[in-house]
């Protein structure tokens, strides 16, 4: 990696979806990011994605509901057929609530482990629900890279587009942690952000990505950070603010001694 950084192909954001505690949708989250509103105390506690039938929706964990709701909204905003999109599901921890429940059961009564909870505990559970629910046979990738998870999801999307995919769905999401795991893998609330990304077209807003060894731009924390800083997907908040503003620059953690510079050019 050179001192100047390594450029990635420019992207276009075709559609945005979001869901967060107190902000049930991209419009609500964008308003908070702009300082035009505050999180709503009477907002729904859990997402309710239309992709799942009611019985399945009741059984699915919050992490899956969060990912699917944001993904559906992004596809709808992009007027894209979800059955045709390659997808990337990026989660820092997966579902730590389920992991805690499984660990507690194993310690107390191993034979009582719930098959449904075990089914939902795998890191690509949301990707599985998504591809089955919308009949998608395109490739799906699950990514976890601790605080670099969101940045690495963007990098993966850019590389898939460069490799020939016409469009890619990126879904970044995390839910709360519970029990002893909460002391070492801290996360609270719900935050999901989904993007339908394509190749940048001339004359349209473009995302320019550059991998480098230094952080070159910082966004001043605002209302969105105050509301969601405790969520494990908080490294994506600067990017969400950038989208809400419609232009600007930010730097995202991309790994050890690595940063992903992002410029949104109108």
Gist of the model:
Helices cover 33% and strands 24% of the residues.
Detail the topology: elements first, then pairings.
Layout: E1 6-20, H1 26-33, H2 54-59, H3 62-78, E2 86-90, H4 96-108, H5 115-121, H6 125-133, E3 140-143, H7 149-162, E4 167-174, E5 191-199, E6 206-212, H8 223-228, H9 237-245, E7 248-255, E8 258-265
Parallel strand pairs: 2-3, 2-4
Antiparallel strand pairs: 1-5, 1-6, 4-5, 6-8, 7-8
Explain what this protein looks like in three dimensions.
The chain has helices at 26-33, 54-59, 62-78, 96-108, 115-121, 125-133, 149-162, 223-228, 237-245; strands at 6-20, 86-90, 140-143, 167-174, 191-199, 206-212, 248-255, 258-265. The radius of gyration is 18 Å and the shape is globular. Strand 7 (248-255) and strand 8 (258-265) form a beta hairpin. The mean pLDDT is 93. Strands 3-2-4-5-1-6-8-7 form an 8-stranded mixed beta sheet, with helices on both faces. It has 266 residues and is α+β, with helices and mostly antiparallel strands. It has one domain (11-202, 231-246): Thiolase/Chalcone synthase (Peroxisomal Thiolase, Chain A, domain 1, 3-Layer(aba) Sandwich), CATH 3.40.47.10. Helices cover 33% and strands 24% of the residues. It contains 9 helices and 8 strands. The two termini are 28 Å apart.
